[in-house]
Amino acid sequence: MSLIKKSNYTKEFKFKVAISALRNDKTIPQLVEEFSVASSLISKWKKQLLDNGSITFEASNKPKLIDNTEKKLYEQLGRQTMELDYLKQFVGRYQ
Predict the structure, then answer these.
(1) pLDDT tens, 34-90?
(2) Is the pTM of this model over 0.85?
(3) Residue 67: its pLDDT value, please?
(4) What is the pLDDT, as a whole number, of residue 88?
(5) What number of CA atoms fall less than 13 Å from residue 95's CA on the CB side?
(6) CA 11, CA 41: separation in Å to the nearest integer?
(7) DSSP letters along the chain, please?
(8) Sign of the alpha-carbon torsion through 52, 58, 60, 61
């Protein structure tokens, strides 16, 4: 019994294949041969792009609000970095 290796495709690759399928320049069998992907995947990615493509144009450029916990962690990281740099000065003098 042989094992079938499941491929993980990047989102960029999926997008490229789906766009190629939407253009209708090539048939699905031609795209299968070009990209070495099953026709069912091409159809699935094309449908996902058509169904979810509008998400791309949503207002996602709004700045992310940093919650209080994340802000405290950044402050702690800054303090520890400064302390480490300060202590490195003394280690360098005594070696």
Answers:
(1) 999 999 999 999 999 999 888 877 765 566 667 788 888 999 999 999 999 888 888
(2) no
(3) 77
(4) 87
(5) 6
(6) 13
(7) -PPPPPP---HHHHHHHHHHHHHTSS-HHHHHHHHT--HHHHHHHHHHHHHHGGGGGSS--SPPPPPHHHHHHHHHHHHHHHHHHHHHHHHHHT-
(8) positive
